[in-house]
TrEMBL record, chains A, B:
Name of the molecule in the record: Glucose-6-phosphate isomerase
Species per Swiss-Prot/TrEMBL record: Coccomyxa subellipsoidea
Residues forming coiled coils: none
Catalytic reaction(s) noted: alpha-D-glucose 6-phosphate = beta-D-fructose 6-phosphate
Entry-linked InterPro entries: G6P_Isomerase (IPR001672), G6P_Isomerase_C (IPR023096), Phosphoglucose_isomerase_CS (IPR018189), SIS_dom_sf (IPR046348), SIS_PGI_1 (IPR035476), SIS_PGI_2 (IPR035482)
Keyword tRNA processing included in the entry's annotation: no
Keyword Iron found: no
NCBIfam families: PRK00179.1
Family that this chain belongs to: Belongs to the GPI family.
Length: 660, 660
C-alpha cells in the first residue's frame, strides 16, 4: 500500500513524501492496529509508528506529526483561504451591500423570516445583519471551500486539529452522555469523562451532606476556587448566572463560592475576607500544577489555612483539579482528592471539565451542574448535525467572519439583557480573543486579513448609560443582544405600566431597532428640532446586530449559551484557516517575567538595591529602578515560621522619605 | 461699541452679525454687568440680554447662544481640523513612523528619557509609543491649531463649552478647595460645592456615629446606592479601589455599600440579598429624578422597605441625590435629605459630586473621600498649568489621538496591575466612549475620520490568561499598564523567590517589553524551535503601550487616576473638535423603548395577547410576539396591597405548555 502526499507548491509547509510500510511493521512486531510510516525528504528518510487511521506528515525542519488523511486535506484547504475565488466573491459583494441600508432591508418581511432561526426554544434573529440571501450563499460557499463541515467532523472525531500542539480538541466530549462514544487517540474518552464526573458527584455530595468534615469537625460550607484564565472566567460566568436562579439558589443555601485568580495579594485579601479557615474548602485548579499565579496563590492560602489549623489540615481542606499527581502530592494534597482532565481540553474550553464542575457541584449540587452539561450537549448536537442554513452556531460564525473581515468591523459587543449574565462577556472575551487572536494561518503563512475581533460588553441596560453613545453615533460596533423570556426574579409593582422585567426587555427590543433604522434629519426636522442640533441628534443607523432570545435562564440554557459561543468561535477559526486552539502568544510575557523576577530577587536580597543593568532596555531599567527604590527598605527577611494571621507583612514597611 | 462676527465661509454654522446695544441696555435699566445684544440675520433682528463677558451667537435656524468672544473663536478653530496643514503633516508623518520598530526606538536612551514624565509621584513612561521627537512636535502643532490651551482655559473658566446643551463643564469645580474661585454664569460655584460637601459630611457623620437611626431605632450600617451610568460606574470604581486600602477599610468596618443599577429585577435581588430593611439606608441618585431605570428600582426598593417597616420609614431610610426637589418630595423623601448637584456636572463626570461623595462618605467617612477630591484637584492643577510637553493628561490625550486617528488603532486596553482597580476600565469605558463616541464636529459637520476609541480592560495578570493572546499576535491594541509601587495588601511567604506583589509586578514590566520588542524567527531558530512552529511562536512586536506607575493606591491617588483619565479624554475631544460633553446618542433608544413599553402594557392588560402590529417592523413584531407568548399567562393582576417579602411575583407563572 502506498499513499503519497505533497504540499501545494508555493505554500510554506512542505509535506514530504510518505509511504506506509506494512512489511516493516510486521517485521518489528507492531500490532495490526498500527503501522510504520516512512517519511522521506530529498535528504532524509525516517520511520515512525502510527495508528492505522493516521498518516505521518512532516513540515520542513519540523517534527513529523500524526494526522488522518482527512486532516492533511483540511490543512491544505486552509492555505491561503483569502486567495480563493469564494473569498474574492465576498470582497466584491461588499460593494453591493454598501448600497443597502438596514432601514430598507427590514421592510422585506420575507427576508426577515428567512433570517429568523430557532433551535430547541432558542431564537436567533439575524435580520439586522447587513446581509441578503446572496450574502448567505456566498458565505456558505466560503465555508464549504474552507471545508467547514469536514473540520467540524474532524473535531468531533478526535482528530488532532490543534496541529501546533498535536492534540485533539474534545471539550465537546466533556458534556457527552454516558451512552456516547467519542474516540481520541484510539480510546473512547467518554468513560474517562464520566469516571471523573462520578467522582465529583461523590465528593460534592459528601461535602454538601456534611459527611466530609474539616479539621475541627465542622462542615465545609465555603469554597475558594483558585485558578486563572479558563480556570476562572468560565466557572465564574456559570456561577454568576446560577446564583439568582431559584432552583439553583435554593440548593446553594448556606453555602459560598468564591474565586481567586489574580496573583495580586489584594485579590487574596478580597477572596478570603470574612471566611473562616475551619469551614473553608480550597480547590486548586491547574492542569500542570505549575501555573505561576495559581500556585503562588495556593501556597498563600495554604499558609492561611495551616497557620490556623496546622499542617495536617491540608488533607481535609484542599483538593486539586490537575493531572500532575506528583506535584499535587508534593504540595500536600492527597492524590485521591485530585480530579483529572485531559490534554484535549484547552483551558478556555475547560468549564465543563472538573475545572468548573467541581466548584459548581460543591455550590449547587451535582444534579444542577449536570443540567448545565446537558444544555451544552444539546447545542453541540445541533451544531454537529444541522445543515448550515439552520445551524445557529454556524450562522453566528459566518456573520462574525462577514462583519470582522469583510465589513472591517474590529469589535463585537456582547450585550445580555440580564444581570445574571454579567460575566458572559468577560468569559467570551477570553474564549474568542485567545482562540482567534492569531496572525498566521494553520500552515504558518501570515494572514493577509484581520482575523479575531475584540469582544467586550456589559449587561443591558447598564451599557446603555455607558458606551452605547459610541455604538449609536460613533464607529460601528456589531452587537449581540441576548434576552430572556421569563426572568429568574420577577417583580410587578402595583400601579406600574409594565413589570420590572418587561421594562428591562423594552430596551432589548428598542436598541436593536434604534441601531438598525436610526433617525434621519428629515424626521428630526418634522419634530421641530433646531437646525443647529440636527446633525448632533441624527442617527445614521445601518448598524448590525443579532438578537438572541432564550425561554429562561437556568443551568440548561446557560450550557446552551456556552456551547453556542464556543462553537461559533470554532466556526470563525475554521473559516479563517487558523488554529483556534493554541495560544503561543502568551509565552513571551512569561519568559520576560521570569527575567524580571530573577532581577527583583537579586535586588531585594542584597543589603542595598542593585540596579538592574543587564538585559533590560534603558526604559525598563529606569522604571524598574524607580519601582525598587519606592520600597527601598523592603529587603526580604527570613520570615517567621508562623505566618501572620492578617496576611500583612513586610511590604507594608514605611516608604523612604521621598515618598512620605 | 460694535463687535461683528461672521462664520467662516462654507462651514455649516453661520454666525450672524451681532452688535452690542449699550444704549438699549441703559434705556431698559439693565445692570452695568449686563447688556443687550442685537443679533441680526438677513431676515431677522432680535435683542437678547447677556453678561458683559459674553457675546451672542446664532446658528442658522438654531437658538441664539451666549458665548464669550474666546469661545466663538474656539468653535471656529474646531471646524474641519482634518483640513489643516497640521493634520496633513501628521498624516504624512505616519509613513515615517511605519519605517520604525519599537525594538529599535527603545535602543535610544535619550529618546526614552525625554518620554519619561513625572508629576507628584506619578510616573508616565511613553517610550513604548510609536513616536519620535518629531511626532511630538507635530502633535503639539496640531493641539495648538485646535486651540487646546484656550479650550482648557475655557473649561476652567466656566464657558459653555458644551455647546449643544449650552452648558458649562465644571466637574473640576467639584474638587476645588474652598479657597478657589470658579465662576459659571456669573456665580462663583465653589461655595455651592462646599455647602453640599459640608452637608454630606454632616449627614454621613450622623449616620456613621449612630445619631441618625432607622425606623426601629437601629443604626443604618448598610447602604444601597441606586443609580445607573455615571451614577453607578464612578462610585463603584472608587469603592472597589478603597475597600482593600488599609486606612479606608478600617473606617468601613461593620459597614456595607452596595450598588443597584440595572433595572433587571435580578439585580434588585442581588443587591438586596441578605440585607435587613431596618439597618439599610437607600440613596437614590438621579439628577432629574426621572431616570427610568433608577426610579423603577427606587420604587421597588421603597416597596421592599415599607412592606417591612411601614410607609413612614421612607423618611428615615431613603435619601436622594437630585436637584428636582418637587419629585423628591412626591416620592416621599424629605427634601431636606436631598443632596444637590448642578447642570454643569455631566453624569459620567459626577463621581466627585454628591453622586459619589455621599455613598462613599457613608462607607468610609468624609475625611477619606475628601482626600479623593484632593487627589483629583492635584492633577487638575497640573493639567491646567503645566506646559504641554510636561503635561501628563495632555500627553496621554495626544497619544490617544495619534493612535486612534493617525495609526488607525480602534481600541485601547486599560490594564491595571492590581485587583483594586478592577472597575477602572468599566468606568473609563463609559467616560471615554460616551464622551468621544461622536460622528460630528462641534459645528455639526460630519467627521472625516474616526474619533473615540473602544476602551476595555481587565486587571493584570487576569487579562494575560484571557485576551492578551490577541494583543500579542493578533490585531494591534494600544495598551495602558498601571502599576503600584506599594501594594495595599502585601504578602511575602518564606521560601518564595519574590513577594506576591513583586510577582505581580514582574508581569507589569514584562508585558510592555514583550509587546514592544516581540520575538523574531532568528531568535526562535537560535533556540532550536522547529521550523514549522516558528511562524506560530513569532511575536511581531512594535505594539505600543504606556506604563503608568503610582506610589501606592489610596483615596488620594485614586483621585489622581480619575482626573488623569477625565482630562485626557477632554484633550482628545478638544483636538478632534467634537463636543465631548453631550450624549444625544442615548436618546433614540429611550424613545423606542417607550413605544415598546406602551405596546407591552396593552398586550398584558387585555384578556388575550394582542399582536403588536402598528409601528414595528416585521422582525420586531415577530420577536416581540414570541416574547409575549412566552409568558402567555402573565396578565398583570392588580397586585395585593402588601408586597411579597421575597420579591417574587407574577412573572414566575408557569410558562405555556409549548415551553415546558
Amino acid at each position: 500500500m502506498m499513499h503519497a502526499l505533497r504540499g501545494s507548491a508555493g505554500a510554506r509547509s512542505s509535506i514530504w513524501t510518505s509511504s506506509y510500510s506494512d512489511g516493516y511493521s510486521a517485521r518489528l512486531g507492531l500490532p495490526s492496529t498500527h503501522f510504520y510510516q516512512t517519511v522521506k525528504s530529498s535528504t532524509e528518510q525516517r520511520r515512525f509508528p502510527y495508528k492505522r487511521t493516521t498518516v505521518a506528515v512532516a513540515q520542513r525542519g519540523g517534527p513529523v506529526r500524526a494526522l488522518s488523511p482527512a486532516m492533511v486535506e483540511l490543512e491544505t484547504a486552509s492555505l491561503q483561504i483569502s486567495q480563493t475565488p469564494e473569498w474574492k466573491a465576498l470582497e466584491d459583494h461588499v460593494t453591493e451591500i454598501e448600497k443597502t441600508h438596514l432601514r430598507d432591508l427590514l421592510r422585506d418581511g420575507h427576508r426577515s423570516d428567512t433570517l429568523f432561526h430557532e433551535f430547541n426554544k432558542i431564537i436567533a434573529d439575524f435580520s439586522r445583519q447587513r446581509v441578503t440571501s446572496r450574502t448567505l450563499e456566498l458565505l456558505t460557499n466560503l465555508a464549504e471551500r474552507a471545508k467547514l463541515r469536514e473540520k467540524i467532523d474532524a473535531m468531533f472525531a478526535g482528530e488532532h486539529i490543534n496541529t501546533t500542539e498535536d492534540r485533539a480538541v474534545l471539550h465537546v466530549a466533556l458534556r457527552a452522555p454516558r451512552t456516547k462514544k467519542i474516540v481520541a487517540d484510539g480510546t473512547d474518552v467518554v468513560p474517562d469523562v464520566w469516571q471523573v464526573l462520578d467522582k465529583i458527584k461523590d465528593f460534592s455530595d459528601k461535602v454538601r451532606s456534611g459527611e466530609w468534615l474539616g479539621a475541627t469537625g465542622k462542615p465545609l460550607t465555603d469554597v475558594v476556587a483558585i485558578g486563572i484564565g479558563g480556570s476562572f472566567l468560565g466557572p465564574l460566568f456559570v456561577h454568576t448566572a446560577l446564583r439568582t436562579d431559584q432552583t439553583a439558589s435554593e440548593q446553594a443555601r448556606g453555602r459560598n463560592l468564591r474565586f481567586l485568580a489574580n496573583v495580586d495579594p489584594v485579590d487574596v485579601a478580597r477572596a478570603l475576607n470574612g471566611l473562616k479557615q475551619e469551614t473553608t474548602l480550597v480547590v486548586v485548579v491547574s492542569k500542570t500544577f505549575t501555573t505561576a499565579e495559581t500556585m503562588l496563590n495556593a501556597r498563600t492560602v495554604r499558609t492561611w489555612l495551616t497557620t490556623e489549623l496546622g499542617p495536617k489540615a491540608v488533607a481535609k481542606h484542599m483538593v486539586a483539579v490537575s493531572t500532575n499527581l506528583k506535584l499535587v502530592k508534593e504540595f500536600g494534597i492527597d492524590p485521591n482528592n485530585a480530579f483529572a482532565f485531559w490534554d484535549w481540553v484547552g483551558g478556555r474550553y475547560s468549564v465543563c471539565s472538573a475545572v468548573g464542575m467541581l466548584p459548581l457541584s460543591l455550590q449547587y449540587g451535582f444534579d444542577i451542574t449536570e443540567k448545565f452539561l446537558e444544555g451544552a450537549h444539546d447545542v453541540d448536537e445541533h451544531f454537529r448535525t444541522a445543515p448550515f442554513e439552520d445551524n445557529i452556531p454556524v450562522l453566528l460564525g459566518m456573520m462574525g467572519v462577514w462583519n470582522t473581515t469583510f465589513l472591517g468591523y474590529s469589535s463585537l459587543a456582547i450585550l445580555p439583557y440580564t444581570q445574571a449574565l454579567s460575566k458572559l462577556a468577560p468569559h467570551i472575551q477570553q474564549v474568542s480573543m485567545e482562540s482567534n487572536g492569531k496572525g498566521v494561518a494553520l500552515d504558518g503563512s501570515k494572514l493577509s486579513f484581520e482575523a479575531g475581533e475584540i469582544d467586550f460588553g456589559e449587561p443591558g441596560t447598564n451599557g446603555q448609560h455607558s458606551f452605547y453613545q459610541l455604538i449609536h453615533q460613533g464607529r460601528v460596533v456589531p452587537c449581540e443582544f441576548i434576552g430572556i423570556v421569563k426572568s429568574q426574579q420577577s417583580v410587578y409593582l402595583k400601579g406600574e405600566v409594565v413589570s420590572n422585567h418587561d421594562e428591562l426587555m423594552c430596551n432589548f427590543f428598542a436598541q436593536a431597532d434604534a441601531l438598525a433604522t436610526g433617525k434621519t434629519p428629515i424626521e428630526l426636522r418634522a419634530q421641530n428640532v433646531p437646525d443647529s442640533l440636527i446633525p448632533h441628534k441624527t442617527f445614521t443607523g445601518n448598524r448590525p446586530s443579532i438578537s438572541i432570545l432564550l425561554p429562561e435562564l437556568n443551568a440548561f440554557t446557560v450550557g446552551q449559551i456556552l456551547a453556542l459561543y464556543e462553537n461559533r468561535i470554532a466556526v470563525q477559526g475554521f473559516i479563517w484557516g487558523i488554529n483556534s486552539f493554541d495560544q503561543w502568544g502568551v509565552e513571551l510575557g512569561k519568559v520576560l517575567a521570569s527575567k524580571v523576577r530573577a532581577e527583583m530577587h537579586t535586588c531585594r536580597t542584597k543589603d542595598r538595591n542593585v540596579s538592574p543593568t543587564d538585559g533590560f532596555n534603558h526604559s525598563t531599567t529606569k522604571l524598574l529602578n524607580r519601582y525598587l527604590e519606592g520600597k527601598a527598605r523592603l529587603l526580604y527577611p527570613e520570615p517567621e515560621d508562623v505566618f501572620p494571621c492578617d496576611l500583612i507583612e513586610s511590604d507594608t514597611c514605611r516608604p523612604p522619605s521621598s515618598y512620605v
